[in-house]
Amino acid sequence: MSDSSHDSANSGLPWQIVSYPRLPSTMDEAWLLFRENKREGIVVCTQDQYQGRGRNGKTWIGKPGESLAFSVTLLPDIGTLLLLAPAFSLALVHCFREVQDSDVKVKWPNDILINGKKVAGILMETVIQDNEVHMVLGIGINLTLDTDEFAEIENQATNLQDHTSIKIKPDPLQEMVIVELQRIYTLVQNGWSPVPEWKTYLTTIGQWVKIGDKSRVLEGRVVDVDSMGRLLIQDGTGCLTPISSGELI
């Protein structure tokens, strides 16, 4: 394990970057450190995560040295919660557009696509107590992973290296992403909205979708997003429903 720091404009305290050669889950380690330290800006990183998780109980697939995985402890204002998925998605879009020239998009709610295939994912786990938000943000990025080796993601995922002629180096990319995440997060905590720009990268607008969560399934056309980044779905009767979470089915 090794430590380094980045300045955090949001809290005035340095972000503590804790690197591990190998971890089961950066999310679990970040929550452990969060409970011990109760501070924002602990960044848990590894290039070998072997029990990583995605949204809704899915598994994050990676191989040592071929993926980046890191998680960040955050204490966001409760009023900014809905804006954070668009914000963090936008931060990744900015970074990937810097290192390759292919088309980068966001598949709602928080998958990053290159030429229509998933290259990165975002996971946010939140605990709210007495109006105080404790969040761990998880980021997984396919650097050089040969996605065709895995039947469950074959033809659905890609990696950064396949879309650029320059050599993708893990450490500089991780540095770039962490800096951009901090920058965007700080802007949102200070009142800036990522939604207008994020909307321009969203693949879902105009599509007929079926979205499910624990309690219901909603089907309709995504006609727009609102100021908080919620999808506005119009069903067959013309009824408009804002949706802030769920899974595309």
Give a written overview of the molecule:
The chain is an alpha+beta fold. The protein contains 4 helices and 13 strands. The chain has an 8-stranded mixed sheet with strand order 1-2-3-4-8-7-6-5, with helices on both faces. Strands 12-11-10-9-13 form a 5-stranded antiparallel sheet, with no helix packed on it. It is globular. The termini are far apart.
**Number of continuous helical runs:** 4
What CATH architecture label of the largest domain applies?
Answer: 2-Layer Sandwich
Spatial arrangement of strands, main beta sheet: 1-2-3-4-8-7-6-5
Strand percentage lies at 25-35%
Structural class: alpha+beta
Low-confidence spans: 7-11
Characteristics:
249 residues, alpha+beta, BirA Bifunctional Protein, domain 2, SH3 type barrels, 2 domains, eight-stranded mixed sheet, five-stranded antiparallel sheet, 4 helices, 13 strands
